[in-house]
Amino acid sequence: MMQFGRRKSPPIRSLIGEGTVVHGPIHFSDGLRIDGEVQGDVLASSEGQALLVVSDKAKVTGMVKAAHVIINGQVVGPVEASVMLELQPLARVTGQVRYELLEMHPGALIDGELRPLKNVEKPALKLAASNEH
Fold first, then answer.
1. Of 115, 38, 33, residue with least CA distance to 80
2. Which of 10, 24, 26, 109 could form a cystine bridge with 30, CB 3.0-4.6 A?
3. Residue 32: left if φ>0, alpha if ψ -120 to 50, beta else—which one?
4. How many angstroms separate the CA atoms of 94 and 82, rounded?
5. How far apart, in whole angstroms, are the C-alpha atoms of residue 95 and residue 133?
């Protein structure tokens, strides 16, 4: 599904099924969907267009890093989405969250720091009257 002229998401080629516990780190390309539990980091091999889906049944304990990240389950650890982060209603994230674009649905919870990847410095305040005497 294309939204707002964005490129089509990569196909999901790998699945960690419900009831499965995997000890990481896990490196993937294209798309990965997690319905089970991962103990360890989940990292996209290519920074390009990798898609990670953490479903409502899933739990990840470790770092999560991919271009597109969709979370509707539990993540305990830092999350970094270099293109887009979508936090669905059942998302529970404990840890620092870094993103380029953020879509957060009502009900999603973050316990940690939420920061954009671009460190936009706040411009210094200048009072117009301060230069006039």
1. 115
2. 10
3. beta
4. 19
5. 50
